[in-house]
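Dear colleague,

Thank you for sharing your sequence with our group. We've completed the structure prediction you requested, and as agreed, I am returning the results in plain text so they can be pasted directly into your records. Please verify that the sequence below matches your submission; if there's any discrepancy, let me know and we will rerun it promptly.
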Amino acid sequence: MSVSALAAPARLPWLPLLVGAGVLLAWDLAVRLAQVPQVLLPSPGSVAASLWQAAPSLARHALATGGAATGAFLVAVLAGMVLAAVMMLSPLLNRLLYPNLLLFQLLPKVALGPLFVVWLGIGLPSLFAFAVFVSIFPVAVGTLAGLRAADPSQLRMCRAAGGSEWQAFRYIRLPTSMPYVFAGAKVAATMAFTGATVGEFISANAGLGYMVMQAQARSDTPLIFAALAVLCVLGAALYGAVGLAEDAARRRWGTRR
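Please find the predicted structure tokens below.
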């Protein structure tokens, strides 16, 4: 049997659903058989009931978190691409900016959250800025790697034909970088929700992160799991949107995954 034949079932769409159903079943059986208190680990049924009962409140808070995370993601993608382009076009700025960008990435993000509150106050500005800060690094690094991956022979041909650096950037470097940009954007899509949720833990009066903190104070563990489930759906939706945009870019520039 060929390797491709063995790998074919992995592409079937129902397999992840089957695995998820198995996990839920094992979770439910473990909770029932071990008689785990609901405050420690609720059953999937309890989470579903809490999700149904708190649906209006969850929807309202999901709108706040989804809007902040999506906006922060878009800003991070744009800023990351611009930053990468600047570092690509200017070796001096690359030497100045890249080590500092890496240094900020190595810092623990959660520990920096309170500083954004000090600088920008409690509310949307601080959590939005924090989400952008968390999300920008993978886009910038991915885009920079993609811009540097352009075929040297194509660049030489462009220069020999009298093309400018901008033309080489637009017609060679940028199309080549698209798979790298989208790889970084997919990471940033998940990081944006992480940043927005952590920001809501620290400085918000709305959002799913705020709702989780309120549920924790009441020891309402099923509601915490319900909010986390909604966060997973939102993150998957944004990730899927990035995937659709990647498909459109592949059709436009003829790039490969």
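Summary note from our side: The chain is about 85% helix and 0% strand.

Kind regards,
the structure core
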